[in-house]
Amino acid sequence: MPWVLDRAMKRHLFLLAALTAFSPVPSRAQSDDLAYCNTLYDLAVRYRGRQINGESKPDPDMVLKAMAETGMDAAATVVIGDTSFDMEMARSAGATAIGVAWGYHETAELAKAGAHAIIHQPADLLVELRRLAPAA
Fold first, then answer.
1. pLDDT tens-place string over residues 110-124
2. Alpha carbon distance 136, 133 (integer Å)
3. How far apart are CA 38 and CA 107, in angstroms?
4. Among 61-75, 102-116, 120-134, which stretch is predicted with the lowest mean pLDDT?
5. Residues pairing with 96 in the sheet
6. Which tens digit of pLDDT belongs to each residue from 91-115?
7. Which sequence spans correspond to the domains of the chain?
8. CA–CA separation, 8 vs 11, rounded Å?
9. β-bridge partners, 47
10. DSSP characters for 97-123?
11. CATH architecture under which domain 2-129 falls
């Protein structure tokens, strides 16, 4: 999915924030994923949920803090996730929730949790972002 994010950011000037509920000591694979993203993108913010207030998903504090730090409002914020907790977190923060069908939770769970859209392959993200921000 990194190439999709790269194209979206270059074409539309998106800010990217990496928010995760990984434990304070992430696994090697989780650390590698975050390090890879950090080398590809100048992330606006990056932190773990438990670092904020001890809460984690679906508590909206991670998203609310990222919005505050970047000066973005909820109408301009999109949360992309693979669990129902991600969708609930986005909705609770007033952000748009996009679920990915290849993650931890089934698409029915993502829809039930309030996903505004569910994408089935990484390239679909570009379509959804264009639909959400046609003027960008």
1. 999 999 999 999 888
2. 5
3. 28
4. 120-134
5. 78
6. 999 999 999 999 899 999 999 999 9
7. 2-129
8. 5
9. 19
10. EEEETTSSS-HHHHHHTT-SEEESSTT
11. 3-Layer(aba) Sandwich (3.40)
What is the rounded average pLDDT for all residues in the chain?
76
State the amino acid at position 46 in one-letter form.
R
Q: Give the contacts of 5 (CB within 8 A, at least 6 positions apart).
A: 16, 40, 41, 125
The DSSP line for the chain is: -HHHHHHHHHHH----EEEE---SS--HHHHHHHHHHHHHS--SEEEETHHHHS--TT-THHHHHHHHHHT--GGG-EEEESSHHHHHHHHHHT-EEEEETTSSS-HHHHHHTT-SEEESSTTHHHHHHHHH-TT-
Q: Which are the contacts of 109, defined by CB distance < 8 A and separation ≥ 6?
A: 83, 84
25-39, 49-63, 92-106, 111-125: which range is least confident on average? 25-39
Count CB atoms within 10 A of the CB of residue 80.
20
